[in-house]
Amino acid sequence: MNWLSILRFEFRYRRNRPATYLFFSLLLALSFTLVTTDVLKGLSGGAIKDNATTVINQLSLLLFLIMGVFMASAIMGVAVVRDFEHRTDSLFFTKPIRTWEYLAGRYLGAMLLLLLTLLAIPLGMMAGEAAPWREAERLLPFRAISYWQPYWTMLVPNALIVGSLFFAVGALSRKMLVVFTQGMGLLMLYLLSGILLSQLDRRETAALLDPFGLRAVGYLTQYWSIAQQNNQLVTLSDTLLWNRLLWLGVALLMLGVTFRFFSYQTSGGLMVRKRPLADGILPSGGGINQRQPIHALPQSVKHRYGTWVRISDLGRLTLFYARLIGKDLPFMALSLGGLGMFLFVALDDAGGWYGSRTLPTTYVMLNKMSIFTGLFLFILMVLYVGDLIWKERDVRINLIHDALPVPNWVVLLSKYLGLGLAFVLLLTLAIGIGALIQVVKGGASLIDWSVYAVSLYGDALGGLLIFMLLGFFIHTLVNNKFAGHALLILFFVALGVVSYLGVEHRLLLFDSASLGLYSDMNGFGHNVTPFSWTSLYWSAFGALLFATAVVLSVRGSDELFKLRLRIGRHQLTRPVLTFGLAILIVFVSSGSYIYYNTNVLNEYQNSKTGEAQQAAYEKTLKQYDGLPQPRITAIVVQVDLFPETRDFMAKGHYMLKNKTKVPIRTLHLQTYPADEMQVKQLSLSVPNRLDTKYIADYAYRMYQLDTPLQPGDSLKLDFQLLYRTSGFKNGGTNIDIVQNGTFFTNQYFPGIGYNENYELASDDTRREHGLKPKERQRAQTDSTGRRQSVMGGDADQVRFAMTLSTAPDQIAIAPGYLQKEWRQTGPDGQPRRYFRYEMDAPIANFYSIVSARYQIKKERYTSPGGQLVSLEIYYHRGHTKNLDRMMRGMKAALDYYQSNYGPFQHRQLRIMEFPRYRGYAQSFANTIPFGEDMGFVSNINDETDIDIPFFVTAHETAHQWWGHQVTEADVKGSAMLSESLSEYSALMVMKHHYPKERMQEFLSYELDYYLRGRQTESKKEQPLAQCEGQQYIHYNKGALVLYALQDQIGENRLNQALRTYRDRWNAATVAQTGIYPTAADLTAELRAVTPDSVRGLLDDWVNAITLYELKAEQVKMKPVGKQFEVTLDLSVEKVRADSLGNETRRPLNEWIWIGVYAPKAKGSTVDKLLYYQRHHITKPKQSITVRVNQQPDRAGIDPLNLLIDRHPRDNIKTI
After folding, report:
1. pLDDT computed for residue 280 by the predictor
2. How many CB atoms lie within 10 A of CB 724?
């Protein structure tokens, strides 16, 4: 017998096993299903086609990660462990065969079969491409290489890597549980690599750490355009190649260790712990252990049965299994690894927005713990549910064990409780580690034990226990360990994708209970009630499954399902049936209550139904879009907030004026289309007839005026609304109106005319509903878009007054100045607190309502022109860490903006904190609602961190100019006029508070966010001046372009252009002309101050998509007297891309910065520039020589990342 005969035997053995065909069929079916259903939308969509090369590559790797790893462990691990588990090793090893031949035959036979099994992935996807129901518009022309290239470059190496590791660990440990444990170790590395992705300087390390290559592929393609993602193959190059070589080397090393240390000895492998013989056990040489006394058996044994005996047995067995699990080396190793991973993540402060850090609050610790408490514990549960079910059979004492007078329910329930107890211990350790880290980081006062308990013991553990019930049922039903593991994992994966198929109801999605986000301001809020009922419902369902598992448990040698079913009938005793009936009643009752809330008190809609309703709205009402309508000129409203019940009442009126040149015969009103909204009154001050045909379906009303409203005439619209929350919804719960931290806008109040925001936006979804693709915004030349602001077409500037009432312990705030505050009994008969706000000048029709239990910080600020401004911050108790930073941000911003752009229009500026359910801040007239996570819990180190609270405050303050003093037209490029200018303005404030070297870090994040945004573009990339609500363009690219432009033409020149733009297009001017500004108007002002020598850059950067490839090929240095001469060999390329990313080269005529750095001083975190000057670059290859007065350390081109360069890391080279 040689290695070849063993290979043939192994291959034939695996080929004849049903599991092999099950694995292949499962992969084939999964591959086919994923590419032929809406599940694929998670990877593709819009301009990224369904069979794009990157989509196929990612899908191949995801399928390997989800199912391929498990199959590899089953095939490769079993190949070498099988002889030991079946106890045939003693017979096999008597054959005259060398160890390397035995291992090589087993390894090669199993590996060949694994590679053939993985062929199901490309075959299934290729078959899916031929499916007749697939949309031709979503597919590129078929290319076989797109499917086979990932197989050879990704799947085959992955099979070799993980297969070799599984085989090696199986050979050395001789236990399949250890093989599965090692698979968990690989998963932990994958998860750990994902944690490192949030920081720019760690991404390459993350890409190398991932054993499966997903992170490496993501790193390689992170800045790919639409065209590249559709057509360019993911080749083995750069970091991906190093990742593959690294892990193939690790696999080869492990195989070498295995071939070196594997032994034919049957007493155990290298990794098997050898236990000494216990006293009283006969040694192998025979003889009697004299130390063990021999007792006579008692003459009679009294058997006791009854409830208390069973409970006692249950308790003892629970502790036995808990100790058994806790002492298990794989469990200990995995637990330590998981807790260690959490410790690493928790100690690492960075990873937030722009690399920022946060205070060690309890919910921050829980966020960092989520990988451990989620996927990690789930996989651990999958392994040990199967291990416990098979524990006695694996060690071959099942026949003895099953003969014991212990009922099935005691055995199974004790295993369930024992595993649950082990998880309780793990979660308790995690809480201890989290609290300890909070103390170490100085956050002892931030520890909230109740939040830990509810989140981990209630949410995380509760979900695990429910899944454990399912796990025991599946393993009992299929009676095959591998199949049980596979089905549990497949079920978990299916839960994540069935929502794409329209299955979204919490009554159908297993274990769909979730507490949602925790907020310091609002706690778990209104999520507790639906969480509790849904948990009860699925716990009852799980208990029914568990009871079924008890009835069908394998006892003795009767393993056939028919036999178990026959025996199980006798298990249906009265107590069992009573228990089942009681649980069934709980299941039905809780399900009925959930259904009553989600489908009776509220209307249930899945995403498909919602899309159909949006399509119907457009098909039915689009005919009324663009009709002449009056505009709101004045708003007077009283809003009564009821935070505890999450309701509000609104009563007020609009003044509507016909600003068109034609009479208006019909007034169209759109009210908020939600079940909770009840329209109590809508009446006009002129005679009219109401057309009700669209009210029920679309909340759309049409009033036929008896006398047409003539140009220049006005009428009054009175309204009374009641927003009442009833029960709880299935999903999409309202996070605007909450118990503490309500924040909503005027979108809840009546609007004038057809609302385009209710239309479907995705071209793919529109096509499904028979609608044509649509542009995201109107063209800049569109007359309708020019005559309405981005705030909406139903108003220009409005006179504003609002009275708010709220709970007696809360402060309610709206734009305007507080005129009066008082307390009185409200409409509900309870004491309430009232606030009256009025604005002294017209404002945009964009206002907010905020209410919470606030503390207040106030300061008086005097502007450069002598104007007094009251600065106020309304914050949650305890969130005081960054108040001074925000206050400095407001002052610094007001100083800079008033000096450069013009006076501030208000006497007051307020920041109000709202819960972290929404991660943004938003600027209204003299009022800035500010998300809890946007700065209040930041933990800034002034030496190393970007000051996020300061920056966000400066950005939102800038909107008082860009968005309020000047409001842009509702056309393409509008966001450049508000968001880009605000982002630039905040950058300039930062520039005057930080050295230029520190600005590089901020600009590098802006560059990264823009380039990564290009990869996720679903439609088409636009130039900055034509952007269509694309955040990566108007925020990140806009900041880079304008910052670089002021660097080229001078800060004062650019700011003068902005001041001129403001003077020409302020609200007073727009009120006279009725025309709002566009990006072309701003560009004209910029062009007027831009010198001819760099005017081409203005068009390149603002009106086109221009990218650079800058690289320092080589940097040399030599002493010249007391100076040092530095010579840089540079490679420079400039390209222009179209909307899909297809590129053409452009001639070079750029003035680009060259920088030379000094060695970093000890203890310093800032790189000091010795030389920083612009040089004229005209050739792709160019050498530049400069001199510095100090010995340099590094040098390069564009050191501060002012230009949009896809590979900025190669700009600088160490000398």
Report:
1. 40
2. 14
